[in-house]
Amino acid sequence: PPTSRSCAKRWPVSADLSTRVAGLELKNPVIAASCEATATPDQIRACLDAGAAAVVAKSVNESPAAHANLRAAEYVLLDAALEPRPLGSAQRTDSLFCRSGLLEVELEEWAAMLAALDRDAAARDAYVVPSLIVADLDRAVEAAATFERAGLRWLELNVGAPHRERDMAERQHS
Predict the structure, then answer these.
(1) Where are the beta strands (DSSP E) in 35-118?
(2) 3-state DSSP: the chain helix, strand, coil percent, rounded to 5?
(3) What does the pLDDT look like over 72-108, one tens digit per residue?
C-alpha cells in the first residue's frame, strides 16, 4: 500500500481518497483551479506531478477586453499577517491576490495541447480540464465543440458575478 513520506518509518498509510464530482470519479478531492499557475504545459504537468486529480487550465474566451486584462493585471503577495511581500517564491502561509484576464491563445492550438496533456493525465487517473468563460454564447458553443473534437473529457464553464459596479450597470442596460 502507499505510504506517507512523513510517516513511512512508523506505519503504512492506506486511505481511499476517491470522490465523485459532477458524476466523475476522481482519485482524490484535489482539483487545481484555473489560474496563473495552470497557464502553461509545464505548470499543468507540475500540478499533475503533485498528485492533483484534475487540473483546470487557465480560462480562455474570444473577448479582446479579457485578454487586455491579463496584460494589465496587478498582483500582490501577502504574508500571514496580510502584509505585502515581494513577488517571487512564496511561503506556505502566503496568499496571492490578483484580478487577471484570460490567456491570449489560438483556440485550436490550446485545445490540442490540453488534449495531449489530458491523455497523459488519463494514464495517471487524472484529468486536464479546459476552462471557458462565456462572452458571446454562439462563439462559446463553437469553442466547446472545439474542445470536444480535440478529445477533452471535461469542460469547465467559468461563470460568475461581475467584478465591478460598471460591469453590472452595463449588463442591466443591455
Answers:
(1) 54-56, 74-78, 84-85, 95-99
(2) 35, 20, 50
(3) 667 788 999 999 998 888 888 988 877 666 777 889 9
Question: At 159, which amino acid appears?
Answer: V
**What would you measure as the largest C-alpha separation in the chain, in angstroms?**
64
DSSP classification of residue 40: S
As a whole number, mean pLDDT of residues 5-16 equals 62
Cell numbers linked to 16:
481511499
Report pTM. Answer: 0.75
Q: What is the DSSP letter of 37?
A: G
Phi, psi of 138 (to 5 degrees): -65, -40
CA distance 127 to 15: 21
DSSP 30-86: -EEPSSGGGSSHHHHHHHHHTT-SEEEPPPB-S-HHHHHHHHT-EEEEE-TTS-EE-
Q: What would the grid cell of residue 128 be?
A: 486536464
| Residues 33, 129 contacting (CB under 8 angstroms) | no
Q: Tell me how far apart the alpha carbons of residues 59 and 36 are, in angstroms, rounded to a whole number.
A: 9
Cα–Cα distance between 32 and 25 in angstroms, integer? 16
> Pairing between strand 54-56 and 127-129?
parallel
